[in-house]
Design goal:
The chain is an alpha/beta fold and 312 residues long. It has a single domain (16-310), classed as Ribonuclease Z/Hydroxyacylglutathione hydrolase-like (Metallo-beta-lactamase, Chain A, 4-Layer Sandwich). 34% of the residues lie in helices and 22% in strands. The protein is built from 11 helices and 13 strands. A hairpin with a 2-residue loop joins strand 8 (162-167) and strand 9 (170-176). Helix 7 packs antiparallel against helix 8 and helix 8 packs across helix 11. The two termini are 36 Å apart.
């Protein structure tokens, strides 16, 4: 693969009737740029799981707030991070990287523009990292003063469709997935290791956040999940954007849930129910115990699906 590919299109969006909820403190903590008060909520250190020799999933070790998971490739030639969490966690992430790799990251691949995955770009760049991301990701961050915080905050290498890194004996194939979680989504396939880093195209065992206001779509999200499944086999391991290491069967389970959840909501929309009536009917109650979580609750997932089904 060449380092430059043909353009792919990705879109993210957040339901209009979620706008108020998305502006609350929890939303700002989860997605926005650095907030000092978030320190009281978020993890202060990272723990790691080795999914293949030299490939790790890093997750928050403590704290009440979900922290975007981070991938790490360690080798004699290069150290690569996939996403880099909130700005407040930059130093803690660096400490974990140095523990596992012996030095800071050489490259950081951002999977999408949300602040819980790009927040420490500037800090990691100051340690020598080169930031890489999709064209749309850079455009969104560049126009956001909370994310465009200075030299190093934005990717310095961008791509439109796909690119391949050849690192430490690995072929890391980076590819764009359009109109899914956002319009700048990327996933990474480590071919030799049979590992896929999915970013927020996988919220393992949780209702997903599909950012409709930023160009994402339910149909695109499902298509992206299906593409990842089609690239995998029973031995593939997934590094999710949120949640534990996953198998192909896990990803299929989450896609089946989303497909069925959309169908359940559509059946009531087609009956002419108002949003209030539909929410009262609680069509996703069957998934509440397993998939409901603090940010995308059962009600918010239902609202997102209503908006997706009723908006052009």
């Amino acid at each position: 693969m060449a380092a430059n590919g043909d353009h792919l299109e990705v879109t993210i969006a957040v339901p209009l009737n979620l706008e108020t909820a998305m502006k609350n403190l929890a939303f700002l903590f989860l997605l926005a740029a650095p907030l000092a008060s978030a320190q009281d909520w978020m993890a202060t250190s990272f723990e790691h799981t080795e999914v293949s020799p030299g490939i790790y999933l890093l997750t928050g070790a403590d704290g009440e707030m979900p922290v975007g998971a981070t991938g790490l490739l360690v080798g004699d030639e290069y150290v690569v991070l996939i996403d880099d969490s909130f700005a407040q966690l930059g130093a803690a992430l660096l400490e974990k990287v140095e523990e596992l790799a012996g030095r800071p990251a050489d490259f950081i691949i951002n999977t999408h523009a949300h602040g819980d995955h790009t927040g420490s770009n500037q800090f990691q760049a100051e340690q020598g990292a080169i930031i890489v991301g999709h064209d749309n990701l850079r455009s969104r961050m560049e126009s956001d003063e909370q994310q465009n915080t200075g030299p190093g905050a934005l990717p310095v290498i961008t791509f439109s469709n796909e690119m391949t890194f050849h690192l430490n004996g690995h072929e890391a194939y980076v590819f764009h997935l359009p109109t899914a979680h956002t319009d700048g989504d990327a996933a990474i396939l480590f071919r030799e290791a049979n590992v896929i880093a999915s970013g927020d195209l996988l919220f393992r065992g949780m209702f997903p956040f599909i950012d409709l206001d930023s160009g994402g779509s339910v149909s695109g999200y499902k298509a992206a999940m299906q593409k990842l499944i089609d690239m995998a086999d029973d031995e593939t391991r997934f590094l999710p954007g949120h949640g534990p290491v996953a198998s192909r069967a896990d990803v299929q389970q989450d896609l089946d849930m989303l497909t069925d959840a959309e169908a359940r909501v559509k059946a009531l929309v087609d009956k002419g129910m108002s949003e209030e009536e539909l929410l009262a009917a609680n069509p996703l109650s069957i998934y509440h115990d397993e998939y409901n979580w603090g940010f995308i609750t059962t009600e918010r997932m239902t609202q997102a699906l209503i908006h997706s089904l009723t908006t052009d």
